[in-house]
Specification:
heterodimer; A: 135 residues; alpha+beta; Sufe protein. Chain: A; three-stranded antiparallel beta sheet; 6 helices; 3 strands; disordered C terminus; B: 404 residues; alpha/beta; Aspartate Aminotransferase, domain 1; Aspartate Aminotransferase, domain 2; 2 domains; four-stranded antiparallel beta sheet; iron (chain B)
Chain lengths: 135, 404
């Protein structure tokens, strides 16, 4: 299978690899996928106000899964939380030129962003209960 | 050393120069049809085919008349299974095989199910082996065929063929063994090993692609097959079609070389595998051998690198040609059916890589490969949330994963 140059680039030089303190109140952690399915993504965001100031990921999965999550962290850094929620998997598919069999990798990345934001909102639910419920 | 380094000897092998040199005249000079009885071109071709038949028979301890040439193992498997089914179907409709077989056997079995045959798929043990006892327990009054591979193509586990064959003899059931990975790699003796049919391909034993053979026992018992290809009645009526003389010459020579060099080749491949696995185990934790560690094909090393996924690993060793048991290398998202049948767990199946060493592999290749593997695994574990969790002491089985 031939990979797009962008997938190879993210694989060779993954952006924002690492972990944030998951206990910290301003950090949201999303873990999606399952080991037996061959993909697990952990994506974390650090939020100040309503802006994602930092994002980190670790991924167990194929090259396309690594590239999808690497790209996701790149895209959400500096974005408002609501803007990050609007990122769809199809944008990731287009950017990385993923073949149909790899579309699930992009879905997983979108899910990881949403899960991290949900976790952040739940942690801070006392401040904005209505918001957390919506998420 | 030229890159990439070929470490996929269970998929195919390079043609040995000695084999190629023997074949070449049969393309341009001695190009006769082996079935032409009226002139020297035909006689020369026929003689070459006879020589090859003798070379092949010698390697497996058969007689020349028991060798049927085919286009390769897949065709031979189809001929053996469907041919027996059609010939003996009136006696019974039950066939026994194993979940860890090659797709050529499994898909033939599935096809026969549609034709009214009943197939028992034995579950291999955790090493991928089938026991003679499990075969015995599965044999019924109406069983006409047992089809169990000699050695597994993915994990290299060698089955107890002699014992399974003895059970089949005792019960009067024909025994076919797909020996594509075994012939020329380990000792195969159709008499001592109690097999009635075996098949193999030229390209797995340093011969050409597009040629193979089916051994069909002629005595005690005499196996009869219904041909699956109608035509000129070549190969004693079992496989019509003009003989692929250069290919057959190559297969014969490949078998002769394999017979002469068997001990040497086995020692070479075993030593390379030991060297490779030692380097890997010295440098990495959480690595598991798939298959029977002590009863594997020489030169076959199927390893699972826990907490990293196989396809991403293969991307990491750009200069190695290897195969993965991970789903992601194929169009389907299912991991290897062999590893699934062995019950190694989908997670480890996704993390498996098959390394194959052979006649042309050198120690330098192995050292280079081990270094690339170690580097890639370490890099990907830095990226792996699972490895991180394990390092933190989290039991992964306690986590509620969100499967998709």
């Amino acid at each position: 299978m031939a990979y797009s140059d962008k997938v190879l680039d993210h694989y060779d030089n993954p952006r924002n690899v690492g972990s944030l303190d998951k206990k910290s109140k301003d950090v949201g952690t999303g873990i999606v996928g399952a080991p037996e399915c061959g993909d697990v993504m952990k994506l974390q965001i650090q939020v100040e106000g309503d802006t994602i100031v930092d994002a980190k990921f670790k991924t167990f999965g194929c090259g396309s899964a690594i590239a999808s999550s690497s790209l996701a962290t790149e895209w959400i850094k500096g974005k408002k939380v609501d803007e990050a929620l609007a990122i769809s998997n199809t944008a990731i598919v287009e950017e990385l030129a993923l073949p149909p069999v790899k579309i699930h990798c992009s879905v997983l990345a979108e899910d990881a962003i949403k899960a991290a934001i949900k976790d952040y909102k739940e942690k801070n639910a006392s401040a904005a209960p209505a918001e957390a419920q919506k998420a | 050393m030229t890159n990439p380094i070929y470490l996929d000897y269970q998929a195919t092998t390079p043609v040995d120069k000695r084999v190629l040199d023997t074949m070449l005249p049969y393309f341009t000079d001695a190009y006769g049809n082996a079935a032409s009885r009226n002139h020297a071109f035909g006689w020369v071709a026929e003689e070459a085919v006879d020589t090859a038949r003798a070379q092949i028979a010698s390697l497996i301890n058969a007689s020349e008349k028991e060798v049927v040439f085919t286009s390769g193992s897949t065709e031979a498997i189809n001929l053996a299974m469907k041919g027996v089914g059609e010939m003996y179907g009136s006696k019974g409709k039950h066939i026994i095989t194993c979940l860890a077989e090659h797709k050529a056997v499994l898909d033939t079995a599935k096809h026969m199910e549609k034709l009214g045959f009943e197939i028992t798929y034995l579950q291999p043990d955790k090493n991928g082996a089938v026991s003679a006892e499990s075969v015995r327990d599965a044999i019924r009054e109406d069983t006409i065929l047992v089809a169990i591979m000699w050695a597994n193509n993915e994990v290299g586990t060698i089955n107890p063929i002699r014992e399974i064959g003895a059970v089949c003899r005792e019960k009067g059931v024909l025994f076919f063994s797909d020996s594509t990975q075994a012939v020329g790699k380990i000792p195969v003796d159709v008499e001592a090993d109690n097999v009635d049919m075996i098949c193999f391909s030229g390209h797995k034993v340093y011969g050409p692609k597009g040629v193979g053979a089916l051994y069909v026992r002629r005595r005690k018992p005499r196996v009869r097959l219904v041909a699956q290809m109608d035509g000129g009645g070549h190969e004693r009526g079992m496989r019509s079609g003009t003989l692929n003389v250069p290919g057959i010459v190559g297969l014969g020579k490949a078998c002769a070389v394999a017979e002469a060099d068997l001990e040497k080749d086995m020692a070479h491949s075993n030593a390379l595998r030991e060297r490779f696995e030692k380097k890997i185990f010295d440098s990495l934790d959480y690595v598991f051998i798939n298959g029977d560690e002590h009863n594997r094909l020489p030169g076959c090393s199927n390893l699972s690198f826990a907490y990293v996924e196989g396809e991403s690993l293969i991307m990491g060793f750009k200069d190695l040609a290897v195969s993965s048991g991970s789903a992601c290398t194929s169009a389907s998202l299912e991991p290897s059916h062999v590893l699934q049948a062995m019950d190694v767990g989908d997670e480890l199946a996704h993390s498996s890589i098959r390394f194959g060493f052979g006649r042309m592999t050198t120690e330098a290749h192995v050292d280079f490969a081990a270094d690339q593997v170690i580097t890639a695994v370490k890099k990907l574990r830095e990226l792996s949330p699972l490895y991180e969790m394990v390092q933190e002491g989290i039991d992964l089985s306690t986590i509620a994963w969100t499967g998709h």
